[in-house]
Amino acid sequence: MIKHGWGYEEWVADFEAERERRAERGDPDWSGGAALPAELVRSLQRFQVGEDGDGSALIGKADRAGDPVYARAVRLFVAEEQNHVRLLALLLDAGGAGTLARHWSDTAFVGLRRLLGLRVELLVLMVAEAVALRYYQAVRDGAADPLASEVARRILADEERHVPFHCLRLREALGPLPAPARRAAALAWRALLAGAAAMVAVDHGPALRTLGVRRRAFVGDTVRASSPMAAAMSAAPPATTATPRSSRRALRG
Q1: How many angstroms separate the CA atoms of 222 and 194, rounded?
Q2: Would you give the distance in Å from CA 183 to the centre of its chain?
Q3: Cα distance between residue 246 and residue 230, in whole Å
Q4: How far apart are the first and last CA of the chain?
Q5: Are residues 133 and 160 in contact, defined by beta-carbon separation less than 8 angstroms?
Q6: Residue 65 has what pLDDT?
């Protein structure tokens, strides 16, 4: 999960290289439209509004962490998330549907993420990322429409890169805690993830059935896949890694 030997300079380079690849590749071909079942439309609309946002709260907390290279990487991460918003909006438009202004699940997640400091923001964000991994995998593999499958494939590839990036920062944030406290934090995070996955399984149940995924399997798969994430974020940082004092203060919360 952690890319061994990678620091934030490598992550900035990775995000910038991906930005160049994305520009060279261009968008999917929207001209043929998309045949999206009504259940999938409603589900994609909710995920689209969940991806939306300018990321200003996360960027502000990253700036206050005192590491300009990390802050640059966070801005590049936010830009990728905003591209997901754009892709989903264009997919919905290709299917003859619009986007939502808001949804209660997004409001709840945003409120929880902004409650305290960077550490809490990233822990809650990682819950959303873990759920998104399973969801976009389901759309990629289960959608009958090739355009929907292609958009999900592109977003999923980004999300798979985002997880180790956030794990690196959480590893630094939780590293100063005693080992039992780190393990307790990982267990609490997985419990929160299980609850979030169950909520998504209920809220998006009709779409998941359309995609050939049962609700219980969605929750179980999501939680099982999170084990490497929890282990990576709660592992002790290498002895040679030192987090600046200003960064340690900003990570609390």
Answers
A1: 8
A2: 22
A3: 25
A4: 24
A5: yes
A6: 86
Going from the first residue of the chain to its last (253 residues), give the mean pLDDT of each consecutive group of 10, the final group possibly shorter. 77 97 97 97 93 78 92 96 96 95 57 64 90 97 98 97 92 88 91 95 97 98 93 71 41 42
- Asked whether the beta carbons of 192 and 200 are under 8 A apart, the reply is no
**Count of CB atoms situated within 10 Å of the CB of 163:** 22
Q: What is the 3-state secondary structure (H, E, C) of 162-212?
A: HHHHHHHHHHHHHCCCCHHHHHHHHHHHHHHHHHHHHHHHHHCHHHHHHCC
pLDDT of residue 41: 98
Backbone angles phi, psi at 178, to 5 degrees: -60, 155
Q: pLDDT at position 101, please?
A: 77
Q: Which residue has the tokens 């590049």?
A: 76
DSSP for 115-162 reads SS-HHHHHHHHHHHHHHHHHHHHHHHHH-SSHHHHHHHHHHHHHHHHH
Please name the residues in contact with 216: beta carbons below 8 A apart, sequence gap of 6 or more. 201
- Which residue reads 């873990």 in tokens? 130
**Distance separating alpha carbons of residues 170 and 182, to the nearest angstrom:** 10
Task: Check: CB of residue 246 under 8 Å from CB of residue 66.
Answer: yes
Cα–Cα dist 111/106, whole Å: 8
Cβ(232)–Cβ(1) under 8 Å?
A: yes
